[in-house]
Amino acid sequence: MPVGDRTEPPDVDAAVDVSRETGSSDPQWSRGGGSSSDPSTDRSRSETPASAGVTPHAAQSVAPVSRETTTSAAARAATLGSEFATAAVETMQDADTPIARELEDQVRRRTRIAQTKVPKPERTRVMTVANQKGGVGKTTTTVNVAAALAQAGLRVLVIDIDPQGNASTALGIEHHAEVPSVYDVVVEGKPMHDIVQECPDIKGLWCAPATIDLAGAEIELVSLVAREQRLNRALTAHLDELGEEAYDYVLIDCPPSLGLLTVNAFVAAREVFIPIQCEYYALEGLSQLLNNIELIRKHLNPALAISTILLTMYDARTRLSAQVAEEVRTHFPDTVLRSSVPRSVRISEAPSHGLTVMTYDPASSGALSYAEAATELALRGEPSGQ
Ligand SMILES: Nc1ncnc2c1ncn2[C@@H]1O[C@H](COP(=O)(O)OP(=O)(O)OP(=O)(O)O)[C@@H](O)[C@H]1O
Ligand SMILES: [Mg+2]
């Protein structure tokens, strides 16, 4: 498989008819259901303007364009009912360009997200976001899916058990050495309640931060009693204490290793959420991860199931991304989300501002993709038999 093999830009003539799409309820995100359009292909269009130097924000002020007449476009805007759509079509001119199609696509996706109610799970869903491969988008996925769920009105806790503390940074949470952290919980036995901080930018989102102290925890845990159970016990006690007020989702951001911290995360969760980067080595090491999860299931946590796989850093310009995506979907047909996340500059910029992309640039295609992924995940619900 040639690395970096380039294909022609996506077939823009196959653009989705917005007027048909917006009237539908939401078949695309339900398990096994789906629209005829390929979300990855849709997103390939979304990234076109970004690569052309046009941000979605800028696009709102640029005169948007469409093949439709102004009259039919205005009628459609009324149907869409969104300010963005109305503003877009009001200034619509007759043109057939990638930017016009990009705008149509964004309007259609935003409208669908706005119209879809994100269901509250019956009980707290505890998900470990894991992949021992580094830099595949675990942290980015954790914080953005968590932010999207919180923005949809759910209560969400992110537990950062990676000594790098990247999730804490992205959520704008203090995590210098003196801050009480997950280290105090798993090593010192402190209650989770004492370390959880509310995210300053997003209502309904909390974080149990990681500090550099956690780097020593792998070694310190070895000699402790019930060393694999420590996070589980602390989290269970915290959820019990919260009662009705308990979180709807708990997402645990793991380090890129299969050490005792990751084992603690697997024991504390019922679901594993694996982000897979759309690149050549994506599947290498995956079998090792699956074996380890099997071992955990056998010896420590029989309830654990791989519930969700998300394709990240999808680059629609490369055939390689499409090939990796296809391979992963073939291997895990029921587990891979239909939504995938494009490679996006806005996503990678957000953490340097202490923000998720959901707050840094909510109109970007990266934010839309994470909102879609979070909605899909919520609509699917916990795998049966849990
Ligand atoms: N969709 C994306 N588009 C562009 N850049 C991305 C995307 N997702 C993640 N990145 C960037 O890729 C890098 C790795 O992402 P991230 O930190 O989420 O991976 P990780 O799996 O948590 O890494 P680690 O294994 O070190 O914990 C970061 O710089 C992040 O900003
Ligand atoms: Mg990380």
Uncertain regions spanning at least 5 consecutive residues? 1-81
Taken together, the total number of domains comes to 2
Helical run tally: 17
* Category from helices, strands and their pairing: alpha/beta
Bound molecules: adenosine-5'-triphosphate, magnesium ion
Assign the CATH class of the largest domain: Alpha Beta
Helix percentage range: 40-55%
Q: Estimate the mean pLDDT confidence.
A: 81
CATH architectural designation of the largest domain:
3-Layer(aba) Sandwich
Largest sheet: 7 strands, mixed
CATH superfamily of the largest domain: P-loop containing nucleotide triphosphate hydrolases
Radius of gyration, in angstroms, nearest whole number: 21 Å
According to DSSP, the number of beta strands is 9
Order the strands across the largest sheet as they lie in space. Answer: 5-6-4-7-3-8-9
Task: Report the span from N to C terminus.
Answer: 38 Å
Instruction: Write down the secondary-structure element order.
Output: HHHEHHEHEHEHHEEHHEHEHEHHHH
Question: Could you please say which CATH topology of the largest domain applies here?
Answer: Rossmann fold
How would you describe the shape? globular
Strand content: 5-15%
Task: Characterise this structure.
The chain is α/β, with parallel strands linked by helices and 386 residues long. 44% of the residues lie in helices and 10% in strands. It has two domains: 12-115, no CATH class; 125-380, 3-Layer(aba) Sandwich (Rossmann fold). The protein contains 17 helices and nine strands. The strands form two sheets. The protein has a seven-stranded mixed sheet with strand order 5-6-4-7-3-8-9, sandwiched between helices. Helix 11 (230-242) packs parallel to helix 12 (260-268). It is globular, with a radius of gyration of 21 Å. The structure holds adenosine-5'-triphosphate and magnesium ion (MG). Adenosine-5'-triphosphate binds next to helix 7 and helix 15.
